[in-house]
Amino acid sequence: MTVTAAAPQTTPGDLAAAAHRMTDTLAEHAATADRERRLAPDVVAKLLSAGFARHFVPACHGGTEGTFTDLAQALRIAGGGCVSAAWVGLIYASSGRMAAFLPRAGQDEVWADGPDAALSSALRPSGSATRSGDDWLVTGRWDFLSGVRHADWSLLCVAVEQPQGVRYFAVPRGQYTIEANWCPTGMRATASDSVHVDHVRVPDARTFPHSSLLDGSDDPTAAACYRAPLPGSGPPLFAAPALGAATAALTRWAERRTKRDATARLALTHGTAELDIAQLLLDRAVAAADAAPMTRETVARTMRDASTAARLVRDAVDRVVELSGSAMLSEADPLQRAWRDVRTAVSHGALDLERSSAQYVRDVWGWTTD
After folding, report:
1. d(Cα 281, Cα 274) in Å, to the nearest integer?
2. Alpha helices in the chain (DSSP H)
3. Contact 130, 149 (CB under 8 A)
4. For the chain, first and last CA: distance in Å?
5. Residue 75, CA atoms < 13 Å, CB-side half-sphere
6. If you ran DSSP here, which 8-state letter would residue 186 be given?
7. Mean pLDDT, range 263-281, rounded to an integer
8. CA 306, CA 299: separation in Å to the nearest integer?
9. Which has the minimum average pLDDT: 62-66, 113-117, 254-258?
10. What CATH class does 228-363 carry?
11. In terms of CB atoms within 10 Å, which end of the chain has fewer, N or C?
12. Nearest-CA neighbor of 96 among 142, 65, 138?
């Protein structure tokens, strides 16, 4: 990847402070966004003005080259207002980090109009890409691109035959079509729709191998956010919006329960302890990513911490939902929305506890797995 020479002009906590300022707005729009299955344009504008898209953009393009710690804190705060909005902010930030692995000419195209270009990404390989002279011809359909309706670019993942391997291709908005097919139980407003591309020509400057992102940059002068391997940096970020939502949900639930209810007191005590433990695990995980490079053991522990934190968050919300009675039957009830959103968020593949446990016992304990 291209190493940046300029130092980013940012102060730790800037993104979190911006997230604090917009949380009330996110909360005000959350019910409508859930019902209409998309974020309001002014919510997306606030995400961009807050600095989510530029958070991992190279400094030479006006970006922040920020830390995983600052992003996780901002996602947790924003998640307390609207999980879907926080999730889209996460995708814009992480997709910007991915685009930083493009050759310099490709970066110049993506950020020609500044560092706040919104990027969405498809992480699962699909479609096809074949050589055509010095370019590639890309065709296919990709699913689950959160925030794609407001994105300027999409990063599409393809398993190519020559040279063999998985690559990402940056395609501008005008060269793909969007299929509105996102109909989940929770996180409805992420509008994680599908993208269709038909024989779009992509130059070499707008593609990079997945292995670069997976392993992280080996350039010791690159910012830490580019040197952290994907498995050791991505999972804790995916858990952060759910933690914010769960924290807000337990607060609202406690405010409407009678303080003389011993069962409720126990549920609140247990649930808030679980959320505190989840926070500690995520704090350690993102701190490890910020201290890149990471060892195999550290990556495995980070994956374990993130997936365990996700389970704790899920269990904390489940516990109070079980005590909420008929109020939970209404989709308009904020606790039901939080429960649906948290359940959906922690089901992400990056937070799969079984998969992370297999890697943890292999890389930390030396156990062989079938």
Report:
1. 11
2. 14-36, 41-50, 68-79, 83-99, 104-110, 210-215, 224-227, 230-256, 262-290, 296-321, 334-345, 353-363
3. no
4. 35
5. 33
6. S
7. 95
8. 11
9. 254-258
10. mainly alpha
11. C
12. 65
CB neighbours of 113 closer than 8 A, spacing ≥ 6?
Answer: none
159 by DSSP, 3-state: which? strand
Q: Could you confirm whether domain 14-215 is CATH 2.40.110.10?
A: yes
CA distance 327 to 14: 38
Residue 131 carries which side chain, given as an amino acid letter? R
pTM above 0.90, yes or no: yes
pLDDT tens, residue by residue, 180-237: 999 999 999 999 999 999 999 999 999 999 999 999 999 999 999 999 999 999 999 9
Phi, psi of 124 (to 5 degrees): -90, 130
Residue type (1 letter), 275: L
Tokens of 279: 């926070």
Closest CA to 129 of 192, 208, 193, 194: 208
Q: pLDDT-based confidence at 11, cuts 50/70/90?
A: low
Task: In whole angstroms, give the CA distance from residue 61 to residue 253.
Answer: 44
Q: Domain segments of the chain: what residues? A: 14-215, 228-363
CA pseudo-torsion sign 100, 102, 154, 303: negative
Average pLDDT over residues 241-256: 94
**What average pLDDT does the structure give for the chain?**
93
Q: How confident is the model at residue 338 (pLDDT cuts 50, 70, 90)?
A: very high
Number of Cβ within 10 Å of residue 20's Cβ equals: 17
- State the DSSP code for 64: -
Minimal CA–CA distance to 241: which of 313, 172, 154, 296? 313
